[in-house]
Structure formats: structure tokens, C-alpha cells
Specification:
membrane, transmembrane helix, mainly alpha, globular, 118 residues, 0% strand
């Protein structure tokens, strides 16, 4: 059942992004920023955690999950070290995921033959 919940929650997030791309003049970059910001706002108010309980990886892997992680890490650092934590918390909280994305992206570029779009 966990896989189905993750599939549904992740799918709904992707459907929302596709609808935004098809019906508005928003660019994919702006949609990315909107999703990360929404995830951070919902995470700051503790609402995104409820979605994570239902959707698991379907809620943590997409972009709003990244925003949620940024917000939670920044809030934690502010509580521990003060205002400076607002700047350092997000970096500390997401460093592992960002490093893994860079590493595995580079590894895939070495294994496969990337081509530019024509």
C-alpha cells in the first residue's frame, strides 16, 4: 500500500506541474521555484509532514520535498545557533542530497554518451 500511496502523491504533484506548464505561460524554471517555495512554506507550518506520512517518497522526492527539507533544516539551525542558522541550516540539511545528485549525474554522464538537443 505504501508504494501505491507514494505513486499517487508523487503523480498528483507531477500532474499539477504539467497542468501549470500547459495552461500558463510559466517556464519550467519558474514552476520549479514555485514548487520549492510552496514546499518550504508548507514545511515551515508543519503541513508538509502530514503529506509525507501519507505519501512517503512520493512526497519527499519531488521539488516540494526539497523545499520542505530546506525549511525544516533552517528552522532547526535557528533554534540551535540563532539567526545565522537561517543561512546555514538549509545548506547543512540538503548537502547530502545535492552531493548525491551531482555525483550520480556525473557517473551517468560517464557511463552513457550524453548528447545535446538539436
Amino acid at each position: 500500500m505504501e508504494y501505491i500511496s507514494a505513486f499517487i502523491v508523487g503523480g498528483v504533484i507531477c500532474i499539477i506541474a504539467q497542468i501549470l506548464m500547459d495552461t500558463t505561460k510559466l517556464t519550467p524554471g519558474r514552476i520549479l521555484v514555485v514548487f520549492v517555495t510552496i514546499g518550504a512554506i508548507l514545511g515551515a507550518f508543519g503541513l508538509y509532514d502530514k503529506l509525507v506520512v501519507v505519501g512517503g517518497a512520493g512526497a519527499t522526492v519531488p521539488l516540494p520535498g526539497f523545499g520542505n527539507t530546506l525549511a525544516k533544516a533552517a528552522i532547526k539551525e535557528v533554534k540551535e545557533i540563532g539567526l545565522l542558522g537561517a543561512f546555514t541550516g538549509g545548506i547543512k540539511g540538503t548537502a547530502g542530497g545535492v552531493s548525491a545528485a551531482i555525483f550520480f549525474g556525473y557517473l551517468m554522464a560517464l557511463i552513457f554518451n550524453p548528447k545535446t538537443k538539436e
